[in-house]
Amino acid sequence: MKEIKRKCQGCLKIQNRDLMIKITKLNNGLLKINPSSKELGRSIYVCKNIDCIKNLIKKKKLISALKCSNMDEILKIEEQLKKMLPL
Ligand SMILES: [Zn+2]
Question: Coil, strand, or helix at residue 19?
């Protein structure tokens, strides 16, 4: 079976999709982490790794790569990403 690979927006490396978190801007404009396959929209990926997630937030990739300007949604997703990580 072929591995699906995606680029991490934190470290910019290509990784196995199974090891990554997917963030999608749904067609209604809201952001969602790891949406179901029925929920479509522009998506980015990030490694399940504190440094990559910090980088993603620092570089404001949710705004630039997802073209999201809704700051409430950006902050909500940043909080959710931080909670997914063991400290
Ligand atoms: Zn990464």
Answer: helix
56-71 pLDDT, tens per residue?
999 999 999 999 999 9
All residues with CB under 5 Å from ion ligand 1: 8, 10-11, 47, 52
pTM over 0.85: yes
Question: Mean pLDDT across the stretch 36-65?
Answer: 95
- State in Å: Cα 11 to ligand 1 middle: 4
**How far is it, in rounded angstroms, from Cα 70 to Cα 84?**
22
Ordered structural domains, the chain, with CATH: 5-83 (3.30.1230.10)
